[in-house]
């Protein structure tokens, strides 16, 4: 009698790159305040997996501003368009989202005026009226 044996070996198939993004993080995560027309560096956006580790081949996040028109992104720099507040929204389709607060406060000039009558006696003080103007 002849016996035959078959050996079946179980195998685990590892598929890299199938991990789904679990979180988006701005680095640094602090709110950005822009005070000159040069702008500010764009914070890095890190895509993390469900273990909190950065993903190397993650999809690029979609970036939008709400409201639009306060800043734009130009070559890695947040460029001011007008004074105001906005939020930078980063999202991945069917995935995580994150937000970053941005405030633009650019002062181009300050004008000083004095209340009527604008005469001051020697040794007296006057309260000047100051008005800052900038990007809007």
Q: How would you explain this protein's 3D organization?
A:
By secondary structure, the protein is mostly beta strands. It starts with 22 loop residues before the first strand and ends with a strand. The protein is 0% helix and 42% strand. The strands form 4 sheets. The protein has a 4-stranded mixed sheet with strand order 2-9-8-5, with no helix packed on it. Residues 1-17 have low confidence and may be disordered. The protein is rod-shaped and about 80 Å long.
Write the layout of secondary structure elements.
Layout: E1 23-27, E2 32-34, E3 40-41, E4 44-48, E5 62-66, E6 71-74, E7 77-80, E8 84-91, E9 97-104, E10 107-113, E11 129-134
Parallel strand pairs: 2-9
Antiparallel strand pairs: 1-4, 3-7, 5-8, 6-7, 8-9, 10-11
Strand fraction band?
35-45%
Record field, number of beta strands: 11
Structural class by helix and strand composition: mainly beta
State the low-pLDDT regions, or none: 1-17
What order do the SSEs take from the amino end to the carboxyl end, as H and E?
A: EEEEEEEEEEE
Average predicted local confidence, pLDDT: 86
Kindly report the spatial arrangement of strands forming the biggest sheet.
2-9-8-5
Report the major sheet: 4 strands, mixed
| Shape call | rod-shaped
Q: Please give the alpha-carbon distance between the first and last residues.
A: 96 Å
**Number of separate helices:** 0
Radius of gyration: 28 Å
Binned, the helix content reads under 10%
């Amino acid at each position: 009698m002849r016996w035959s044996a078959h050996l079946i070996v179980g195998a685990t198939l590892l598929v890299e790159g199938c991990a789904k993004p679990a979180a988006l993080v701005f680095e640094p995560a602090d709110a950005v305040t822009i005070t000159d027309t040069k702008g500010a560096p764009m914070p890095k956006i890190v895509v993390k997996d469900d273990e909190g580790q950065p993903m190397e081949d993650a999809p690029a996040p979609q970036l939008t501003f709400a409201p639009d028109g306060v800043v734009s992104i130009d070559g890695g720099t947040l460029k001011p368009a007008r004074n105001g507040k906005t939020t930078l929204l980063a999202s991945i389709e069917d995935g995580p989202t994150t937000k970053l607060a941005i405030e633009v406060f650019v002062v181009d000039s300050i004008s000083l005026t004095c209340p009527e009558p604008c005469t001051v006696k020697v040794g007296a003080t006057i309260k000047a009226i100051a008005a800052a103007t900038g990007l809007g």
